[in-house]
Write a structure and sequence with these properties.
By secondary structure, the chain is of the alpha+beta class. Helix content is 49%, strand content 17%. It has 17 helices and 18 strands. The chain has helices at residues 5-8, 59-71, 90-98, 112-146, 151-162, 183-189, 251-291, 298-306, 343-362, 387-404, 424-441, 454-463, 466-486, 490-499, 504-511, 515-529, 536-557; strands at 3-4, 18-19, 27-28, 30-33, 46-50, 76-81, 102-107, 166-170, 175-179, 197-200, 215-219, 222-231, 234-241, 315-324, 366-371, 374-380, 408-414, 447-449. The strands form 4 sheets. It has a 6-stranded antiparallel beta sheet. The protein has a 5-stranded mixed beta sheet with strand order 2-7-6-5-4. Residues 7-123 form the Purine catabolism PurC-like domain. Pfam families: GGDEF_2, HTH_30, PucR. Residues 490-547 form the PucR C-terminal helix-turn-helix domain. Residues 297-437 form the CdaR GGDEF-like domain.
Length: 560
C-alpha cells in the first residue's frame, strides 16, 4: 500500500532533484533519513534520504552503504549533494541500476524536513484513498450476505477487485462457489485425483496479520493457498485462492481477503441459523405429532406441507433408545470441532442424516425427531407393512451410522402397520411400548415389533388384578429382599436359567459363573420361594411371576 515512485518524484520540493537512474516501477511506503551504518533500519519499499556523511570521500564505504540499502529492498535512495558528497560516482549509479534502485541527487539547500513532510502527506493520502476503496469493498461484501445473496456472489466480488481466482468450500471441503479456480487442484486437495500434494511455506512477506494464517500447497508444478473460515471458534469452511503467474499479492489484496473471510463467516452463520430454525420447527412439529393426539385437519396438513411432510401417506413408527459407550470426542463425526455441550446435537445430526439417506435408498419418505436420548422415526410404509422392509431400513441406518459414531448401539421398538393413515400418536405409543418391553427381554441393540408383545400385553392386563398382584408379591418378595441385602442377583440368575430352558451348562457360561456357584444360587432360589425348579407347575409360577413383575416395572416407568 504505497505511492508509485514516479508520483513521489513529481512533488514540488523535488523539482530540482536529479534522477541518476531509470524510474523503475516501484512503490514508496515510507521515508526516513538513514546514514551509515544501515543495519536493519531500512524497510522494504522505503525512500531513503542521506547526506553521505562518513562515506562521501570514501568510495568503497559509499558502495558498501548503497549495497546495504539495496539488501533492504528500498525503492529510492536520495543523496543531498554539495557538502559531504558532490557527485554520485558512476560505479554507484551502475550498481543501483543493476538492482533497480532509483538513485537521486538532491541539492544541499533542499531541506529534508520538507521532503519528509511532502512524501508522508502523499503516502497518507494514498492510504486514505486505499482505505476508502477497501472499506467500500467490505461494505459490498457484507451487503451481499445481508441482502440474501450467496457464496458465488462473494467469489465474484473478490475476483472483480483482486483478480485472484478463488473458491469457497464448506468444512467438509465440498466446493460451494468457484470463480476461475482450477478444479483439478480442488480434486487433488480433496483426494479425488491422484497427485502429490505437499504443504509448503508461503512466499508472502507482507506486514499483514492474515499472512500468518495462510496455508500454501504445492500440487505438481502449481501452488495454491488456503485460509480457514472460522466462526465462534468452529471451522465453517475454506477460502482457496491462486494468484496468476507473476501476479503480486499486495497488502491491499490481503485486507480484501480478510474482509472476504468475514463475509463468508457471516454467510455460514446465517445459513446455520436458518437450518437450525428449520430443524427446530420440524422437531417440535413431529414431537407434538407423536406425543399428542391431534385432529388431522386442513390446517395441520398445510403446516406439515410447509415443512416438507406429507401426512396423508401411511407410516410406521420406530422409537430407538440411543446408547453411547464412549465419550463423544472419540466419535469420528465430532473431529474436535464441536464443544462437549453440543455432542448430543452432533450425534442427533448424524442419526437424522443417516435416516434420511436410508429413506432415500428405499424410496420412502422419512420424518425424524428426537426426545432427549430417544430417536423417533416415521417411515412411509408399503401396503403390507412387512417386517422385512422395516429391518431393511434399519440395517441401512445402522450400517453407516456405526461407521460414523464409535461405540453406539440403538434398541428399537417398531409399531404395527395396520391402516397406517393419520394415526401418528397411536403408532408412536405402540413403538414406545414395544421398546420398553424389548428392553426387559432383549440384549442391547435388539429390535422389538409391537405384534411380538401380544403375550406381554395380555400378562400386563392380568397383572392389574389384585389377587394376581398378591401372588406375584408373595412369590418374589423373598428373592427381591435377598438381592437387595446380599447383591446376589438371584432374579437375574433365574431369568437367564429360564432363557436357556434350565440348561445348567449354558446358564453358567452366559453368567460367567462356575457350575457349583450357579447350583448354589438355584438352591437359594428354591429355599427362599419354597418352589422346586424341577416341578413344572412351580417353574411356571415362578416364570409367570417374574414376567409380571418386569411388566409392572415397565408400566410404572411410563412415557419418557
Amino acid at each position: 500500500m504505497g505511492v508509485p515512485v514516479e508520483e513521489v518524484l513529481k512533488l514540488p520540493m523535488l523539482e530540482k532533484a536529479n534522477v541518476q537512474t531509470p524510474v523503475y516501477d516501484r512503490d514508496v511506503e515510507w521515508i526516513s533519513v538513514i546514514e551509515t551504518p544501515v543495519e536493519n533500519f531500512v524497510r522494504n519499499n522505503e525512500f531513503v534520504l542521506s547526506t553521505g556523511v562518513g562515506c562521501g570521500e570514501n568510495i568503497p564505504a559509499l558502495e558498501a552503504y548503497v549495497k546495504d540499502v539495496i539488501r533492504s529492498d528500498a525503492s529510492i535512495l536520495a543523496f543531498a549533494t554539495g557538502r559531504h558528497l558532490f557527485k554520485i560516482p558512476d560505479r554507484i549509479i551502475a550498481l543501483a541500476e543493476q538492482h533497480e534502485l532509483v538513485l537521486v541527487e538532491i541539492p544541499w539547500e533542499v531541506r529534508f524536513a520538507d521532503i519528509l513532510q511532502g512524501v508522508l502527506q502523499l503516502i497518507n493520502e494514498e492510504k486514505q484513498k486505499v482505505h476508502r476503496h477497501v472499506e467500500g469493498i467490505r461494505q459490498e461484501l457484507i451487503n451481499c450476505v445481508l441482502n440474501g445473496k450467496g457464496l458465488q456472489e462473494i467469489t465474484t466480488i473478490l475476483y472483480q477487485y483482486t483478480g485472484l481466482p478463488n473458491a469457497i468450500s464448506d468444512h467438509l471441503k465440498h466446493i460451494r462457489a468457484n470463480q476461475h479456480f482450477d478444479s483439478s487442484l480442488i480434486d487433488a486437495l480433496n483426494g479425488r485425483k491422484e497427485a502429490v500434494v505437499s504443504l509448503i511455506e508461503h512466499p508472502f512477506r507482507l506486514e499483514h496479520p492474515l499472512t500468518h494464517f495462510i496455508e500454501a500447497y504445492q500440487i505438481g508444478e502449481e501452488c495454491c493457498y488456503q485460509l480457514t473460515i472460522l466462526s465462534n471458534y468452529k471451522k465453517q469452511g475454506y477460502l482457496l485462492f491462486q494468484p496468476e503467474k507473476d501476479q503480486e499479492v499486495t497488502t491491499e489484496m490481503m485486507t480484501i481477503l480478510e474482509h472476504t473471510l468475514t463475509a463468508c463467516a457471516l454467510y455460514f452463520v446465517k445459513e446455520n441459523a436458518i437450518e437450525m430454525t428449520e430443524i427446530r420447527l420440524k422437531d417440535n412439529f413431529l414431537l407434538d405429532l407423536a406425543k399428542q393426539e391431534q385432529r388431522m385437519d386442513k390446517q395441520l396438513l398445510s403446516k406439515a406441507g410447509l415443512l416438507g411432510y406429507d401426512l396423508e401417506k401411511p407410516y410406521v413408527c420406530f422409537v430407538g433408545e440411543v446408547l453411547f459407550h464412549q465419550p463423544a470426542s472419540r466419535s469420528v463425526g465430532n473431529d474436535g470441532q464441536l464443544p462437549s455441550s453440543s455432542s448430543l446435537q452432533s450425534r442427533n445430526y448424524y442419526i437424522q442424516k443417516e435416516a434420511a439417506y436410508a429413506g432415500h435408498m428405499v424410496g420412502r419418505q422419512v420424518m425424524t425427531t428426537f426426545d432427549e436420548e430417544r430417536v423417533i422415526i416415521f417411515l412411509e410404509a408399503d401396503k403390507e407393512g412387512s417386517e422385512e422392509a422395516a429391518n431393511q431400513f434399519l440395517d441401512l441406518v445402522e450400517r453407516r451410522l456405526f461407521e460414523l459414531l464409535a461405540g453406539v448401539t440403538i434398541q428399537w421398538g417398531i409399531s404395527c402397520h395396520k391402516d397406517g393413515y393419520q394415526v401418528f400418536h397411536h403408532s408412536y405409543e405402540e413403538a414406545r411400548t414395544a421398546l420398553q418391553m424389548g428392553e426387559q427381554q432383549n440384549e442391547a441393540g435388539g429390535r422389538t415389533f409391537f405384534k411380538e408383545t401380544r403375550m406381554n400385553r395380555l400378562l400386563m392386563a392380568l397383572s392389574h388384578k389384585k389377587e394376581i398382584e398378591e401372588i406375584v408379591q408373595d412369590t418374589l418378595q423373598p428373592l427381591i429382599d435377598y438381592d437387595q441385602k446380599r447383591q446376589a442377583e438371584l432374579l437375574h440368575t433365574f431369568m437367564v436359567y429360564n432363557k436357556y430352558n434350565s440348561n445348567v451348562s449354558q446358564t453358567s457360561r452366559a453368567l460367567n459363573l462356575h457350575r457349583q456357584s450357579l447350583l448354589h444360587r438355584l438352591r437359594n432360589i428354591e429355599q427362599l420361594t419354597g418352589l422346586s425348579l424341577l416341578n413344572a407347575d412351580d417353574l411356571f409360577l415362578l416364570e409367570l411371576s417374574v414376567r409380571l413383575w418386569l411388566l409392572k416395572k415397565v408400566e410404572k416407568s411410563g412415557p419418557q
